[in-house]
């Protein structure tokens, strides 16, 4: 796929996502859980941020000609987490629920300002690397779709429910 087409789609989906998050207002982002035991908008942003940072770093490695392979051993997985500060979401050793629980536990007490800053930085990192690619390989396109477009679409209903509950 041509990179400019994907970037256009990504920015359109991102605009929709940000408009909805902005409806909550900055002060309420961490104070509105879906229900007992569920996530707040801040938690959703932290979740998306971790996947976007993984993706931005993945693109960085590809751009430098050093593609990074998923962790295959427990020690390698632990070293990845210690080095990058987020799970290796592509490792076959780590389930999605386990990775998501780690993100939640790590960022649940972080200030909303930090989460927003990290999330914007990660998203901008994705865009910065994408604009340098003339064409997106099919294997990379699947990862990009999953960790951006599909992720935004998946969490829009959760944010809409939060906003409806707060009325």
Characteristic terms for this protein:
mainly alpha; Four Helix Bundle (Hemerythrin (Met), subunit A); 6 helices
For the terminal residues, how far apart are their CA atoms? Answer: 42 Å
Q: Which H/E pattern describes the elements?
A: HHHHHH
Fraction of residues in H or I helices = 55-70%
The CATH class turns out to be Mainly Alpha
Based on secondary structure, the structural category is: mainly alpha
* CATH architecture classification: Up-down Bundle
Instruction: Note the main sheet.
Output: none
Uncertain segments of ≥5 residues (pLDDT<50)? Answer: none
Cα shape: globular
Tell me the fraction of residues in β-strands, as a range. Answer: under 5%
Number of helices in the DSSP assignment: 6
Number of domains: 1
Radius of gyration: 16 Å
Number of strands: 0
Description of the molecule:
With 167 residues, this protein is mainly alpha-helical. The chain has one domain (3-165): Four Helix Bundle (Hemerythrin (Met), subunit A). The protein is 69% helix and 0% strand. The protein has helices at residues 3-24, 41-63, 74-84, 96-107, 112-130, 138-165.
Task: List strands and helices in order, with pairings.
Blueprint: H1 3-24, H2 41-63, H3 74-84, H4 96-107, H5 112-130, H6 138-165
In short:
The protein has helices spanning 3-24, 41-63, 74-84, 96-107, 112-130, 138-165. With 167 residues, the chain is mainly alpha-helical.
């Amino acid at each position: 796929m041509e990179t400019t087409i994907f970037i256009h789609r990504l920015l359109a989906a991102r605009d929709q996502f940000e408009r909805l998050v902005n409806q909550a207002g900055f002060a309420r982002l961490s104070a509105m859980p879906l229900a007992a035991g569920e996530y707040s908008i801040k938690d959703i942003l932290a979740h998306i941020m971790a996947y976007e940072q993984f993706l931005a770093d993945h693109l960085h490695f590809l751009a430098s000609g050093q593609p990074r392979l998923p962790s295959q051993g427990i020690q390698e997985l632990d070293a990845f987490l210690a080095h990058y500060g987020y799970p290796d979401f592509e490792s076959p050793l780590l389930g999605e629920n386990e990775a998501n629980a780690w993100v939640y536990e790590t960022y649940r007490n972080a200030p909303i300002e930090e989460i927003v800053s990290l999330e914007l930085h990660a998203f901008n990192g994705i865009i910065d690397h994408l604009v340098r690619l003339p064409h997106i390989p099919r294997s990379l396109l699947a990862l990009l779709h999953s960790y951006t477009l599909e992720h935004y679409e998946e969490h829009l209903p959760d944010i809409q429910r939060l906003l409806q509950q707060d009325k």
